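Materials and Methods. Structural model of Transposase and inactivated derivatives. The 91-residue sequence of Transposase and inactivated derivatives from Budvicia aquatica was retrieved and submitted for structure prediction as follows.
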Amino acid sequence: MVTIEVACRHCNETQPVRKHGKGRGGYPRYYCNDCKRTFQLSYLYRAHQPGMKEKIIEMASQGAGIRHTSRTLKVGLNTVMRYLKTAEPVG
Ligand SMILES: [Zn+2]
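The predicted structure was written out as tokens:
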């Protein structure tokens, strides 16, 4: 069995993980031996990347529309709306 050291995105521990095939976009998936969950190091869909919420809010505060934000950042319309709803009200 091939194990490599990768930081698990669920438990945030660097530990041996097993390869777990490939996910969407051909990125390798890994299986965490500790929390028994699978994850990828990089994802095709970037809506849940750190900083995405900030980018969405920044664009909205600059007057960009929801559709424009969604298209520019390549995240779903509903994702943009959800982030904006949960954001702190400005002003
Ligand atoms: Zn884990």
